[in-house]
Amino acid sequence: MALPSIVIGPPVHGHNLWDREKEIRDTWKALETSSVLLSSPRRFGKTSIMLNLVDDPNSGWEAHYLDVEWVKGAEDFVAEIIAELSQKRRPRKLLDGVTGALEAAIAKIDELGFADFKISLRESLKEGWQDKGKALISNLEKAEKKHIIIADELPLLVLKIARSKGNGEAEDFLFWLRGLRQMPELRDKVRWIFGGSIGIRKVLQKVGAGSKILNDLQTIRVREFTKEDAVSFVKALIEKELNGKEPPSQVVEEMLNVIGVPIPYFIQILVRESLSEMEREGHEVLSEKVIQRAYEQGVLAGYNRTYFEHYYERLSQYYDPEIARQARELLAALARHGELSKAELWTMYENRSQGQGLEDDFDYVLADLENDFYVAQDPTSGNYTFGTKVLEDWWRRHHAI
Asked: What kind and span of H or E run contains 299?
């Protein structure tokens, strides 16, 4: 079996996608009968799994991955779908039942550059995006293969639509998506996969949509590695970097002790920093001391800020400014104290809000922080800690004041 390379940041492909066979198998099985919500905290490999479905589809399927990171409106989302389908299918096959400005926009795909083509699409979709998008996607009924439309970060997309266009448009968008999934003529021809790294049900509540709007989706959760899989992943990464030299078992164990919860993204950062520290010191083998120095002086160092700072910044993306501030302060308190009860966290929240804080808002923030793997609740004591040792150490060093 090919050994994986260290890939930090972008999604991975092929043999670099390590130990996600079960999630991929479960996703394909779910797609036989329903669409899917693929749920996980960030950096667990969710996007890599989605791209695997595109790169290596099952027989009779064709998968389309949509880049919706920048999307702010429903018409932009529909334009992304049309642009993706237009790239892979002859445009004329998309035109059945489509007239007017949208027909003209699609017909120009060969004349315009792709960026200009998408701009033209968005302009033609500003009015009537629901009907135009539905008409085009309905044409997949005639396709020879079954199609999967993959949109990562659905909760963030819904929040951005709500902020730019209002809660009403966000709710309309969700009902439009549900309507497409329920169309009898498309039910056996088109499946959807939505990714989510924040609590979708909390987002639905925020925009005023009920949870039943997504109750036709089968949820598949992407979790951290098991201990066994984490051991094999660390060994494989080191062997690849050291040209086949297998690391001692105590070195692998030390890495996992240092990293805590075995998340592939954090493992790769530690392996890279440990090997760099080993080379810098002129050693030929890794040791526990080298790993500790690499963690303290490398992984948690300021020059690795880009690998961790998004956890801090994304709070402002998902919450209103005041709630984002409260979330940061709760996390700072946990970083300082290590462990706090819910009552202690509520007291801090209430004090910071000068007695104006609502318990519903507090529960909302705490539940989302837990869903996003920032925090975890001990099942025995009920107390809260950081969900991962690495993130706790990073927060304590850089954001605990």
From this structure: none
SS3 190: strand
Using one digit for the tens of pLDDT, what is the confidence trace for 241-274? Answer: 998 888 999 999 999 999 999 999 999 999 999 9
**Fold (CATH) for 305-398:** Arc Repressor Mutant, subunit A (1.10.10)
Give ∠ CA 137-143-145 in degrees, rounded to 5.
115
Quote the CA–CA distance of 233 and 241 in Å, as a whole number.
Answer: 12
Check residue 110 and give its pLDDT: 59
CB atoms within 10 A of CB 168: 12
> What are phi and psi for residue 196, nearest 5 degrees?
-150, 125
Q: Which two tokens stand for residue 398?
A: 């850089």
**Under 8 Å between Cβ of 1 and 15:** yes
What pTM was computed for the model? Answer: 0.86
What is the fold, at CATH topology level, of the domain defined by 20-221?
A: Rossmann fold (3.40.50)
Side chain identity at residue 186, one-letter code: L
According to DSSP H, which parts of 194-287 are helical? Answer: 200-207, 227-241, 249-259, 264-280
Tokens of 57: 């589809």
Shortest CA distance to 50 belongs to which of 68, 31, 84, 24? 24
- C-alpha 259/C-alpha 240 separation (Å) is 20
Helix (H) or strand (E) holding 155: helix 154-165
